[in-house]
């Protein structure tokens, strides 16, 4: 039955929406604002400074599995709390850095913290507390965090102009600590049954010896599942395509004769459309198969590339921004949704972390590979064709892929939990489709 109390999972969702927005804004996006003043003040090259940011991406990937293992065993509450404390200390240390070696140590350590405080642990928490309303809860968190760049880029620039880069970074570090640490420590909880709930806010009478355990397959079974590796492949193809165009979008427009300032605004507009894509994805995910939704997201990436390939007129750039940005944002929800739906939540952290290792590798090599293609052929034409083909391949593989027999019963159970009582006919139809 349903409780009359407000479900505590929504308090957790709101807390994570706040902390993810602040953490992404300060630990990830603010970096670009301080690159130029750091170059002038410290005398380091652009390559040396961006090398520190590359360490963040690499260390986040390296720490994905240990973080996933910890979440499955102990939950995310203290992991995210300690991660926020360490990130705060490291951002404060960044404001005082004087040596390149120290800078690299700080940013490599921030990569470890990023694995503990950004999307992956937050998604694991949401997947544990929600089933039917999982997409809506994920959309709430990512909707807010999607505005991180919109909020913190101008805020960081204003602080830079007013106080200089060191004091600006110091102030952001203090703000990171006073907001994220207490929210992670005081609001997060491990499981719904700790507070007498089932996922989504249902209540159940049980004793300490009969507490329901989260459902799901083991890491070993997931890794032996053909479907897991299909998902890893298609999301890796999508990450390759999206990372390449996201990093090279501004220089691509400039090469095509677009003013640099206009190109920068166009790139920023992609971030706003990410939010729109998440708003659209959440309700549709409850009406259609997640597999179909994921395939559609990949297809939209490919469609967006067609508009960019026909030219750089205002309408073609605008359509690309709308479609690509929406698909880019929806993909953030699509991955945790389908992983939790097919493999359950009891080992979600470790299962997801294995996939993240491959996705991080794809996102790391894509910009470099796209740059190599540009240097070799003198234009972005081949890169655009390859991105288009990657999107088509990802969508095609996904639409024809189905969970193997080991996962079908779990996906059917998850779907039944997501659907309202008046949707039983649709459920029977879905079971029939899965058994084909």
Biggest beta-sheet profile = none
Number of helices: 19
Structural class: mainly alpha
Mean residue pLDDT: 83
What is the CATH top level name of the largest domain?
Mainly Alpha
Order of helices and strands: HHHHHHHHHHHHHHHHHHH
Percentage of residues in helical conformation: over 70%
Number of domains: 2
- Rounded to the nearest angstrom, the distance between the terminal CA atoms is 33 Å
* Second CATH tier, the architecture of the largest domain: Up-down Bundle
Beta-strand percentage range: under 5%
User: Rounded to an integer, what's the Rg over CA atoms?
Assistant: 22 Å
CATH topology of the largest domain: Growth Hormone, Chain: A
Assign the CATH superfamily of the largest domain. MFS general substrate transporter like domains
Number of strands: 0
Notes on the protein architecture:
This protein folds into two domains: 8-196, MFS general substrate transporter like domains (Growth Hormone, Chain: A, Up-down Bundle); 219-434, MFS general substrate transporter like domains (Growth Hormone, Chain: A), CATH 1.20.1250. 78% of the residues lie in helices and 0% in strands. The protein has helices at residues 8-28, 35-42, 46-62, 64-74, 77-94, 100-117, 119-129, 134-145, 148-163, 165-187, 219-223, 226-255, 260-285, 290-309, 314-343, 348-377, 381-400, 405-418, 424-434. Helix 1 (8-28) packs antiparallel against helix 10 (165-187) and helix 8 (134-145) crosses helix 15 (314-343).
